[in-house]
Amino acid sequence: MSDLDQFRSETRAWLEANCPAEMREPVREDADIYWGGRNATFKNDAQKAWFEVCRDKGYTVPAWPKEYGGAGLSPAEAKVLREEMARIHARAPLQSFGIWMLGPALLHFGTEVQKQRFLNEIARGEIRWCQGYSEPGSGSDLVSLQTFGEDKGDHWVVNGQKIWTSYADKADWIFCLVRTDKNDKYRGITFMLFDMTSPGVSTKPILLISGNSPFCETFFDDVKVPKEYADGIPAQVGEVNRGWDVAKYLLGHEREMISGAGDTERGAGIGAMLTRAAGGVLDPVLRAELAMFDVDALAYSAMGEKFLDEIKVGKAHPAQPNMMKYAGTELNKRRNELIMAAGGSAALEWDSEESNGGSKARSWLRTKANSIEGGTSEVMLNVVAKRILELPGA
Amino acid sequence: MPLYYDDDQTMLADTAAQFMGEEGAIAKQLRHWRDKGCKDGFGHALWKQMAEMGFTGILVPEADGGMGMGNVEAGIVLEEIGRNLTPSPFLTSSVMAATALGLGSDDLKGRYLPGLLAGDSVFAVAIDEGPKHNPDRIACKAEKSGNGFKLTGKKDFVVQGASADMIVVAARTAGSDDDAEGVTLFAVPKDAAGVGHNSVRLVDSSMASHVTFDAVELDGDAVIGEVDGGRDVLNRVLDAGRVGAAAEGVGVARGSMDMTIDYLKQRKQFGRLIGEFQALQHRAAHLYSEVEIARAVVIKAQQLLDAGAENASLMASVAKAKVGKAAGLAVKEGVQMHGGIGMTDEYDIGLYMKRDRALAEFMGDVYYHAGRVAEMSGY
Ligand SMILES: Cc1cc2nc3c(=O)[nH]c(=O)nc-3n(C[C@H](O)[C@H](O)[C@H](O)COP(=O)(O)OP(=O)(O)OC[C@H]3O[C@@H](n4cnc5c(N)ncnc54)[C@H](O)[C@@H]3O)c2cc1C
Ligand SMILES: Cc1cc2nc3c(=O)[nH]c(=O)nc-3n(C[C@H](O)[C@H](O)[C@H](O)COP(=O)(O)OP(=O)(O)OC[C@H]3O[C@@H](n4cnc5c(N)ncnc54)[C@H](O)[C@@H]3O)c2cc1C
Global pTM? Predict the structure, then answer.
């Protein structure tokens, strides 16, 4: 038996023994997701047990090195773990912007003391992070951001406003893009980490079309950000004024995550499931649409696999995540359109117990943001056109 | 298995790209034979050269003198064939017929494989009996007669049928037209008495034959596989044909896309390169992503087929359908973005559109395969 086969059978046995049955059910509502953080509460004992056993094994961030709270798995082992978890429909033990976005950036750009502290905290789900990028005047054109940090020697004084900050009101810390040099658009931005309870930080939730309110306007009013925390831990990631490099690197990971490239669910066909759910009878035109969708979804899943394989060996074009983000999010929107169509009137229910609080309708509405958040589809296409196809710039 | 080429496959891809780019180029092959009104629609000299390169026997086991490679490698050659619109009997002979013969008797292998390996023989595959691909329905009959069979009926749109030295024919030996069982595959030699051809030129300048079988006497050893149990062999031939046609389609898509992107970088209107217009940039980027995705699922299907995986046939249909969509988009956008010049015979872009249309029908179109995906998924 190869080492990988051995690892697979061990993993299967471990999951069998440790993943509670309640954690092998699809996520139905926000409370089914454990986000961690200072004020985190568990929905039930199973969620707590599943989180803790994963945390102790390094399985909240399986591919991170052990000294930073991971399990130190090789890419091939991490893939096996993903596959085995998908096989039993196991929920993620912990989700967070720390894992998806800040962590990879710290692994790449962080100093040793920064990694020791923040990566371990992220892996253990102790601090919940939010992302302070967008501003009212700076969305797609992010580099035009205006939030300003004035250099006061051993600290900055930050003033400005962010918007669309997901879960800002629930987050403990923020990773934030702050202009520290007004004369250089690209080389005048610093990537800062600070506590959301710092004096001068306030948040105001924004209600979404899904009826939920996961994001906020975030205001900074003379917020004092020290340049160094205790034990010589810098508050900025990378160099001062060179935060744009960190921001772009992180966006690559964010796009990869939103594209659902490694998400086996997203690449699966839905025709059989929806037809069954509708009692086996569907309009023939709808059935045809489902078949065409399944073709695209199964093909995209092969693309996701190819993309991850190529990334591992450095064969992927650096702008490939933009293509994946574009294709994956457009596909996910179409998937949810079809789920609504196949569900009929039952999918319209907004608040019944039967519909899990309108989960289909709310998901459908939520997915409309997939092609906006983390960079819009139009911006992704711009990048593909310019960087991969090398079409001339305007 | 990772979804990219290993070192050997990369080398083969480089070799195939260079060979087809030079010897199989559009001016040298497609246009040349088309303008001559060639009755075969392809050049035998090139077929001979492909044999010298080892391409013709790519799927033939080493023990039988071939390269002993798989559908991934056959696909590598096919992608280059597609990119250069190279007319050749590779897909029908080296992929589909070779797959059939591989499941046949030693006698059949001994009779036909040497000619294939040498580039002397050309094979065709006859399945369809109407203008749309429908291998579930087989009416062409082979009745027991002496120690052999008597074949009666017709087959339509047999690619290169009239040029073929042997035609693999799917015929009914039992049951009724729509039965899955009762099908048998035969290797029908060119000179068998009672075989008639009505050969027609198709839009892409390839030749297809309406073949008639008028009480054609066949020996018992013309049977490929089991009598009445040919459906399995047929399915294997079909799957190889599906992923093969898909691989060629990816080549057509990429060739047409590359040409178009090049044009966007050269053509000026309104004082700017047309590639600067976002309306065209976005469509080009969308096209690129569709073609990349199609290519990924083709490689996936090839690997599954080579591994004999359970879901190989499903993914073969996904691949054929996805390529149908992506390549169709590539050629239509290609002509449109070339503007008026794209409508001229002189420019190659229109040739891509023609080849895509023929390839889209070959072995089942988007709708056929999407339908098959639905059925195989249980809805
Ligand atoms: C659910 C959700 C969660 C989010 N979470 C966060 C978060 O946690 N933190 C954070 O900082 N931000 C977050 N965002 C913000 C997100 O990054 C921005 O919404 C996104 O970058 C788009 O910016 P915008 O909304 O200002 O749109 P705009 O940039 O104003 O775009 C409006 C329209 O114009 C198009 N457009 C703009 N520029 C071009 C161009 N050059 N070419 C062609 N078309 C163009 C866009 O594609 C879009 O269709 C979130 C957004 C959503 C929807
Ligand atoms: C069958 C046929 C018959 C014709 N008959 C006549 C005739 O009798 N008399 C005559 O004078 N002409 C005739 N024409 C020419 C016709 O008017 C031109 O082909 C047409 O105006 C397009 O110009 P073009 O071919 O140079 O393409 P281009 O202008 O080079 O366009 C190439 C591509 O770039 C796109 N493009 C160009 N500019 C932009 C932009 N600003 N934004 C976005 N995309 C852009 C185009 O849409 C096209 O997809 C005929 C053409 C055809 C095909």
Answer: 0.95
